[in-house]
Specification:
Largest interface: A-B, 53 and 55 residues
CATH class of chain A: Mainly Alpha
Shape of chain A: globular
Helix content of chain A: over 70%
Number of helices of chain A: 14
Number of domains of chain A: 1
Strand content of chain A: under 5%
Largest sheet of chain A: 2 strands, antiparallel
Number of helices of chain B: 16
Shape of chain B: globular
CATH topology of chain A: ABC transporter involved in vitamin B12 uptake, BtuC
Structural class of chain B: mainly alpha
Oligomer: heterodimer
Number of strands of chain B: 0
CATH class of chain B: Mainly Alpha
Radius of gyration of chain B: 23 Å
Chain lengths: ~350, ~375
């Protein structure tokens, strides 16, 4: 929004060799390349200091930690791309985690997939509520989802009270989900990677997916072009809610002790993962893959601090610093790119 | 108007505004229309006057509700408690109001409070004199705000993303500063501010500071060219720039003011609880934003008033306090606050929606009276 004013400065000097220029341009054009480079450098440095970082066990640990955030980030990406934001996901995760896993002690012998379905349904219901209010009520999503963040967490607290779901009440088939592996890769990571890939494919190649970008780039233009803006935004919120519900069940499988604080504050972590992953906070650009890499980077940082024996106190400061660094770099690079493209097109015209 | 009152009084989002008076029709600029029209000042005044009337009704309703549920509610001691428990949030809402009116947001306020509290604890435990610590805290707040401001205005990053980043960064610095330690036993001269009212009143010190600051912020925002320029840049940044307003400088200044005020709130918080720990004020940023939005400040900038914020603070604090006196689960008061927040965006929308519906109805009946008449026959 405030970006337009500063875009008209200092065109970069034209690069000398056109061949190499095209290559760098193509690399820069892939928004994820920056974040991927950061991830690779980060992993390389950490491993150089402490080889244990790339142990099978630690990699599995990082991947498992990523799954919940990657799911949340996928939903958030769909919402943010359409120039909205969903702040309620942390509360949705908490509500779904408790209500779904409580079924294990309430309904004897309930199958695990049914519990996942219940979690998904709870999340979907919350997402539908958000989506209806944003698209029909035409009110800013920041305000609506800030309100539902409070309301859903409040409902959660009223239901849970001082209780909690404890590990003993969870059947082994459920509690072991994070431990199951295929060829050393956690099953869960494979499934989530597939889900993220599907989401990315949808956003990239489906008409309705592309329309989310159009809405995010310019909502008025999208409306004039005949895109059903309200419907698309509604869908994005519904999907985001459903994924948050699903993530709640996964969260429960990982942490195995669920009280009314589950997932508190996740909304801002996920938004930062999404932004670090190259999704523009004001919509219109970014990919689900990038957001997933952003989630992976945050989990890797978490684990690296652990492996390197750095006190966990540094965790947040570093995460915040990296977020600021990532968005600053992204901004500088895109400014350069715009300037370079302008120079080229003006030369072509002249 | 009636619909606004009904919905505000009961804290419900759904409002069937069938009884809107004609005045609601005449002042019907859609609150979400980003481009505000010329001569907006008059409309703005009317609109905010109506919004604040609704808030006054809400505050009275809450007072009645509180008094009816508990005889304790309207006692002086309880009012002191009410001011005490919401003082810091109220103080932080003032600079947040200016920032949101200017079209930006600052989510790092609670982390700035936490950072200030942690530093206060560490420096005190190292034996620094209190006045020197205060000076350091104010510098810290200014520096924190400067960082936010420079990233937003000079680098050109969206403030939502920047301040989510500094939210983590500042909280992280608080963690690094004080670690897992807890510092308490601050001198009684300061911690008394947390347990005693200002002499001869029922006001807590934080509430007193809020009142003084609210007057200052109100005068600056509503009575100076500086304040008007904040509205101008929030309504249309490019136009403000072309009108010669130093948008970047003013926004940076607003962030610095916010940082300083939040650092001060950090000291108040620390003295009130007599503890400095890393998680002081965790998550308060959303409460602060909720108050400001409830006050009728538009999230898109350019609209809002300090009077509204003062009323919203009263509503927020009163409601929390009233629920505290009932046996409603204290931690679940978020449901009510969230409901109020929803009402604050839906009610004006519903009002403007009915206004538009009436307008188009009127236009249609003017345009084709013959057809309608024919239809009736």
């Amino acid at each position: 929004m405030s970006a337009t004013a500063t875009q008209r400065r200092d065109p970069a000097p034209p690069p000398p060799d056109p061949g190499s220029r095209r290559l760098t341009e193509r690399v820069f054009r892939v928004r994820e390349s920056g974040i991927l480079a950061v991830l690779v450098v980060f992993v390389a440095i950490t491993t150089a200091i402490q080889p244990r970082f790339l142990d099978t066990q630690n990699i599995q640990f990082v991947l498992i930690n990523t799954t919940v955030f990657a799911l949340l980030a996928l939903g958030e990406t769909m919402v943010v791309v359409s120039r909205n934001v969903d702040l309620s996901i942390g509360s949705v995760l908490g509500l779904s985690a408790y209500l779904s896993t409580r079924l294990f002690s309430q309904v004897h012998g309930i199958p695990v997939p049914a519990v996942f379905a219940v979690g998904l349904a709870i999340g979907l219901a919350c997402g539908v509520a958000n989506g209806l209010m944003v698209s029909l009520g035409r009110v800013p999503s920041l305000v609506v989802t800030l309100a539902t963040l409070y309301i859903i967490r409040g409902i959660d607290i009223l239901i849970v009270g001082g209780n909690e779901v404890v590990a003993q009440s969870l059947p082994n088939a459920f509690a072991n989900i994070p431990q199951d592996t295929v060829l050393g890769v956690p099953d869960l990571a494979i499934v989530i990677a597939a889900v993220v890939a599907l989401g990315a494919y949808y956003l990239r190649s489906f008409r309705s997916g592309r329309e989310l970008y159009a809405i995010g780039s310019n909502p008025d233009a999208a409306r004039l072009a005949g895109i059903p803006v309200g419907k698309r935004i509604f869908t994005a919120f519904a999907v985001s809610g459903a994924l948050a519900g699903l993530a709640g069940v996964l969260w429960a499988a990982e942490y195995q002790t669920i009280d009314s604080t589950a997932g508190t504050g996740y909304e801002l972590l996920v938004v930062s993962a999404v932004v670090v992953g190259g999704v523009a906070i004001f919509g219109g650009s970014g990919t689900a893959i990038g957001a997933a890499i952003g989630a992976l980077l945050l989990a890797a940082i978490n684990s690296a601090l652990n492996v390197l024996g750095i006190a966990p106190f540094w965790d947040q400061a570093i995460a915040g610093f990296l977020l600021l660094l990532a968005i600053t770099l992204d901004r500088v690079i895109s400014l350069r790119l715009v300037a370079a493209l302008r120079v080229r097109s003006s030369r072509r015209a002249g | 108007m009636q619909a606004e009152r009904d919905a505000a009084g009961t804290g419900q989002a759904a409002a069937g505004p069938a009884t809107g008076h004609d005045e609601a029709v005449s002042a019907g600029p859609g609150p979400r229309r980003p481009a505000s029209r010329g001569a907006a000042a008059g409309q703005l005044l009317r609109r905010s006057a109506r919004w604040e009337t609704g808030l006054v009704v809400l505050v009275i309703a809450i007072a009645v509700f509180g008094a009816s549920t508990s005889s304790e509610f309207l006692t002086g001691y309880n009012l002191f408690n009410l001011g005490l428990s919401s003082g810091e949030i109220a103080i932080m809402a003032l600079p947040m109001t200016l920032i949101i009116i200017s079209g930006e947001i600052d989510l790092s306020v609670a982390s700035t409070l936490g950072m200030s509290s942690a530093l206060l604890g560490v420096l005190w435990s190292k034996g620094w004199p209190m006045l020197a610590i205060f000076a350091v805290l104010l510098l810290l707040g200014a520096a924190a705000g400067l960082l936010n401001g420079l990233l937003v205005t000079r680098v050109g990053l969206p403030s939502l993303a920047v301040t989510i980043g500094t939210l983590a960064l500042f909280r992280g610095i608080a963690l690094i500063t004080i670690g897992a330690n807890t510092v308490s036993n601050f001198p009684a001269a300061y911690t008394n501010m947390g347990v005693q009212p200002i002499p001869h009143t029922e006001l807590s010190y934080s509430a007193g500071i809020f009142i003084v600051l609210a007057v200052i912020f109100g005068v600056v925002l509503h009575g100076t060219p500086f304040g008007r320029s904040i509205y101008a840049m929030g309504a249309n940044q490019d136009a403000a720039l072309f009108a010669g307003i130093r948008v970047k400088r003013i926004k940076t200044l607003l962030y610095m003011i916010s940082g300083v005020v939040c650092a001060m709130a950090g000291a108040l918080w620390t003295f009130r609880l007599d503890t400095a720990v890393q998680n002081n004020g965790l998550g308060l940023e959303l409460d602060v934003v909720a108050i400001v939005l409830l006050a009728g400040v538009s999230i898109f900038g350019g609209k809002g008033s300090i009077v509204g914020v003062v009323l919203a603070v009263l509503a927020f604090a009163g409601l929390q306090n009233a629920l505290l006196l009932t046996n409603f689960n204290q931690e679940a008061t978020g449901i009510v606050i969230g409901g109020l927040l929803l009402a604050s965006v839906f009610v004006p929308n519903a009002v403007s929606f009915t206004a538009r519906a009436r307008e188009s109805l009127a236009r249609r009946s003017r345009a084709a009276p013959a057809a309608i008449g024919a239809g009736h026959e």
